Amino acid sequence: MPLVAGIDSSTQSCTVELRDADDGALLGTGRAPHPVTHPPLSEQDPAAWWHALATALALACRDAGVRPGSIDSRERGPPSVTAWSPSTPPARSCGLPNCGTTRRPQPQAAGLVARYGARNWVRATGLTPTAALTVTKLAWLAEHEPGNLRAPHHRAGTARTG
């Protein structure tokens, strides 16, 4: 029986559901909390997300009576922007959807639309940039914290110039 792990990492917790990939039957579930935050600019350390995911996955596997290695695929929702590389810790904490960090990139969204045109964005991506999209969060990071945008490349030893 092929297994799929559904992962939902929200502002409050990480939940993992293990399901039979053929019929969708729920086999096990696990949940672990994230650190409490306080808007308007609540942020969390991505290391806490990783810990919560590992805990929730272990609980779901125990509930289903399976080992993590028996999971065939994983599915997760859209992430916050996290500046990191596989060999180093995250460069900074991440803003959560329940706070002002989701509105911070509004000027960058407007700038991207002004620079390239809404029609071109829709034609290329199917969307017009808004403050909620990753591209505008990256534009905000480039403008306000360029060192953190470059940090993963430098920390991983794959720095690019120019």
Automatic annotation (TrEMBL):
Start and end residues of each stretch annotated as Disordered: 68-105
Keywords associated with the record: Carbohydrate metabolism, Kinase, Transferase, Xylose metabolism
Keyword Nucleus applies: no
Domain of life: Bacteria
InterPro entries assigned to the protein according to its UniProt record, in alphabetical order: ATPase_NBD, FGGY_Carb_Kinase
Coiled coil: none
Keyword Secreted part of the UniProt annotation: no
Alphabetical list of SUPFAM superfamilies matching this protein: Actin-like ATPase domain
Similarity section: Belongs to the FGGY kinase family.
Protein name per its UniProtKB record: Carbohydrate kinase FGGY N-terminal domain-containing protein
Originating species: Streptosporangium longisporum
